Amino acid sequence: MEADITLTVDGRDCALRVDTRTTLLDALREHLRNTAPKKGCDHGQCGSCTVLLAGRRVVSCLVLAAAADGAEVTTSAGLGDAEHPHPLQQAFLDHDGLQCGYCTPGQICSAAGMLDEAAAGWPSAATPPDEGADAAPALTAAEIRERMSGNLCRCGAYAGIVAAVEQAAASGAGGVHSGAAPQKGAR
Ligand code: FES
Ligand code: FES
């Protein structure tokens, strides 16, 4: 069974027909040729396919494209560009947070989502119980590691990744809306 859906991907409005079993990851990569999100495990375990769906991070291999009909999707390619990199993209470069780079788009989308979650006061398993639920928790290295734990890196670039997220968090400009504004109709 097929469905006609629309998505706004990195600021570009897209109409596509998909099999209702098609994942958002496959719709992005195979239908829209947006190869920023990577397919690692295809089972929700590695985080390499992470994108922002309506501003929240999701593993796109576990979302059906038809269920995302009408939604705004931001991939790492939509967070910034070569001239105006997102603070997280710049921080990953500054701190060598990538080796092969395969996990990097998912790491950056996940970090953008988690910085917004932390700023909104969402606690993690690493948040001390005495920190109030409504206050933004301090983004210690332990907090960053816990919040990024769904994103695996086979190269072991974790030390650089933590340093990069710390830099973006300290700049106060690391969340979803900190990069170049996606251009309507542009890719
Ligand atoms: S490809 Fe989606 S979590 Fe691994
Ligand atoms: S940099 Fe190679 S998998 Fe992460």
TrEMBL record:
CDD domains: fer2
Origin: domain of life: Bacteria
Residue ranges occupied by any 2Fe-2S ferredoxin-type domain in the UniProt entry: 3-79
Keyword Nucleotide-binding in annotation: no
EC number from the UniProt entry: 1.2.7.4
Gene Ontology MF: a single term: anaerobic carbon-monoxide dehydrogenase activity
One Pfam family in the UniProt entry: Fer2
Enzymatic class: oxidoreductase
This protein's UniProt keywords: 2Fe-2S, Iron, Iron-sulfur, Metal-binding, Oxidoreductase
Known pathway: Alkaloid degradation; nicotine degradation
This protein's name: Carbon monoxide dehydrogenase small chain
